[in-house]
Amino acid sequence: MHPAFSVIFFTTASGAGYGLLALLGVLGPAGVIPAERWFGLAALALALGAVSLGLLSSTFHLGHPERAWRALTQWRSSWLSREGVAAIVTYAPAGLFAIGWVFLERNDGLWGFFGVGTAMMSAVTVGCTAMIYRSLKPIHQWHNGFVLPAYLALALVTGALWLNALLHLFGLGHWAVTATALAATAAGWAIKAAYWWFIDTNAAISTPNTATGLRTGRVRLIDAPHTEDNYLLKEMGYRVARKHAAKLRLVAHGTAFALPLVLTAATAALPPVLAAGAALLAAASVSLGVVVERWLFFAEARHAVTLYYGAEAA
């Protein structure tokens, strides 16, 4: 599939924002994060800003962005519509949670309830985003059981590392947040590695034979149906060379998981200033790594329609 920048930015930015929102909504009411006004303002502004910019960028992938609102009406059958509805609903508890934290310096009691609601809706929204791709049966690399947990895990990883960085910058570092960031990063790494192993070792159900209905013999394309690429080939026939994909996977392994793990673990032994720098570098590294991972998520996906244009496998 063609890796459109707008969709890559949308899924990475909004995922990080929702991950951060979810952790604020859980760890704040749990008493792990104090209701300090300026930290709350910075953290919630970063989370809601990332979510809003991500959602806005997603409209640029549409032919007519001004009609994006119409997608909200199809929530009974469309995961895209459900995602839009969930994203809008999330702003309500998040806004009330922000009012309590920033203006009243409260993240417990009723305000904590809004925080928990924000965390739940953040998870639902990221889940709907993942299901947009998970539900597409013609794309083997997406229609599998690893896509949903990978999206949720990577949102949690980026959110946890940015939360850890912000806490250190404000001198509020907490061992529980550091431990959460380490556990989330390790789990996210394992899930993503399992996803790549799955798409490398499991063939798609669709083949040229099943696509054409010719069950016997080897089906192959003799003449191309047209002389130039059409929309289907440009959007759904994008291919990345295996050697380039392997190199980019190594970059993702290093920047999204390995380096953040090392840097986050180091914060426990470093003085405050250096710990803040290491935590911030870990957050920046995972952001870069997830962009690379998400680019590969789209570039390595192959739609079954390419079987009609000479592809040996989907």
How would you summarize what this structure contains?
The protein is mainly α and 314 residues long. It is built from 10 helices and no strands.
Could you walk me through the main structural features you see in this protein, from its secondary elements to its overall organization?
The protein is mainly alpha-helical. It has one domain (5-309): Formate dehydrogenase/DMSO reductase fold (Up-down Bundle), CATH 1.20.1630. It has helices at residues 5-27, 37-58, 79-104, 109-134, 147-169, 175-201, 208-212, 231-236, 242-266, 272-299. The chain is globular.
Mean of residue pLDDT values: 90
Which sequence of SSEs, written as H and E, runs from N to C? HHHHHHHHHH
The fold-level CATH name is Formate dehydrogenase/DMSO reductase fold
Proportion of strand residues: under 5%
Number of strands: 0
Alpha-carbon distance between the two ends:
11 Å
Q: What is the CATH homology-level superfamily?
A: Formate dehydrogenase/DMSO reductase domain
The secondary-structure class comes to mainly alpha
Cα gyration radius (Å)? 21 Å
Quaternary arrangement of the chains shown?
single chain
What kind of sheet is the major sheet?
none
Identify the overall geometry.
globular
* CATH architecture type: Up-down Bundle
> In the CATH hierarchy, what is the class?
Mainly Alpha
Number of helices: 10
Number of domains: 1
List the uncertain runs.
none
- Report the helical percentage: 55-70%
